[in-house]
Amino acid sequence: MAYIESYVLPVETARLADYVRIAQESALIWRDLGALSVIEATAENAPIGELTSFPRAVLAKPDETIVVAYVTFQDRAHRDEVMAKMEQDSRMLTLFSSAPVDGKRMIWGGFDVVVSA
């Protein structure tokens, strides 16, 4: 059906505009490398839960905004092919090096799509 690579990360709110610029540029690169689509969204309604929540998952600080992203692919093999290209792409490496995020607090994973409506 399809495959999704997703990640959640905290971004310094004061530098959110910088992150959005980087995300816009990286989305173009993802597409250039073969990804089907890229969606990045900032949390508008993601309260801190008692046990679990998006902010808790990434150890978000009060001065950070939660970002959720989805990159879509045809299947896992297509994802692996595009990811291999991305990891070698100097444009992506340059963008990632200037991103206002703490990559150690990012959570990510790959998912098989089971329902798409």
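The record above closes out task 2.4. Task 2.5 opens with a second protein, given below.
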Amino acid sequence: MSTYQLDARRLLCPMPVIRTQDRVKQLQPGDILEVTCTDPGVKNDIPAWCRINGHQIQKIEEQDNEITLSVLVGKET
């Protein structure tokens, strides 16, 4: 298991989800992708995408207008 970072700051919907999807395709099940965003919509959009595609949100942290979501990569359906 490895941890990777994705900077999706200053991107608006749907780009944070698309960038997350593209990066997850390069990772292995069990890896963690930490996605940092500034669009508050990601708090709903990325978890919904994860549920549909077999991934899990480990945590969501907010600090100074930035949201970091930790995505546990699962097997894509």
